[in-house]
Design brief:
It is a single chain. The protein has 202 residues and is α+β, with helices and mostly antiparallel strands. 30% of the residues lie in helices and 26% in strands. It is globular, with a radius of gyration of 17 Å. The chain starts with a strand and ends with a helix. It binds guanosine-5'-triphosphate and manganese (II) ion (4 copies). Guanosine-5'-triphosphate binds next to strand 2, strand 7 and helix 5.
């Protein structure tokens, strides 16, 4: 296990910690960019109120709800539709690295739980519609859902450019690790995209 990582059970034993759950929702698709480039998959992230990219989800109180119930509640608030997430969709937990402006002694540690759930493309479209209209958090905590470009153009835009933006917490590595593990992007293409994204920020 990587440093800072812990199992779901170990995490739940940390009763004094705060907990947050986020999920990467994705689907297969036959859509083609410009009518000729298959995009293969749709991966959903969101633009948060603070201008950072992240996954839908939020703070959960394990004394009042299970992690998955809490995540499902957050998804209803942020997406406007119920997307039931279960223990089977659980990927990993880790301690959030402490924020430079908060003293670690006064605030209890935050444990981040990450989930991945594959759904139908039709469901993705419903979520996008609801998130932009009826979702309680629309325009407030969540400024909009975004799809992650999984392709790289000849001029190194697309995924490299997306990865050069700013992300909350470890959302960027949650994204990159998931793309690799689920074979949504080939290892070589991902490596090239990571390298170009670093150049863009240099
Ligand atoms: P409120 O309803 O305003 O409390 O927000 P929330 O419950 O929706 O919480 P939020 O989604 O902001 O998540 C809580 C904390 O988890 C954030 O302050 C970040 O530190 C962290 N966080 C948020 N999004 C992500 C994400 O996509 N990945 C990771 N690893 N951490 C995240
Ligand atoms: Mn929320
Ligand atoms: Mn949230
Ligand atoms: Mn919340
Ligand atoms: Mn809220």
């Amino acid at each position: 296990m990587a440093s800072g990582q812990l199992s779901r059970n170990e995490a739940l034993e940390c009763s004094r910690s705060r907990h947050a759950c986020h999920v990467m929702l994705y689907s297969d698709t036959a859509s083609q960019l410009f009518g000729r480039t298959p995009i293969r998959h749709i991966v959903l992230m969101q633009m948060r109120f603070d201008g950072l990219l992240g996954f839908p989800g939020g703070l959960v109180d394990p004394s009042e709800e299970t992690l998955e119930e809490g995540l499902t509640r957050e998804l209803l608030e942020e997406l406007g539709v119920a997307v039931p997430v279960s223990v089977e969709d659980y990927v990993e937990s880790c301690f959030a690295s402490s924020h430079p402006f908060t003293s670690s002694s006064s605030s209890s540690r935050l444990i981040l739980h990450f989930y991945v759930k594959k759904i139908e493309e039709e469901h993705i479209r419903e979520i996008e519609k609801a998130a932009a209209s009826t979702a309680a958090d629309h325009g407030l905590e969540v400024l909009g859902m975004v799809r992650v470009p999984l392709y790289s153009t000849k001029s190194h835009r697309g995924l490299p450019c997306f990865l050069s933006h700013s992300f909350i917490g470890n959302a960027r590595s949650q994204l990159v690790d998931s793309l690799l593990r689920l074979h949504l992007v080939s290892p070589g293409e991902l490596r090239r995209a990571l390298r170009s994204s670093q150049r863009m920020n240099a």
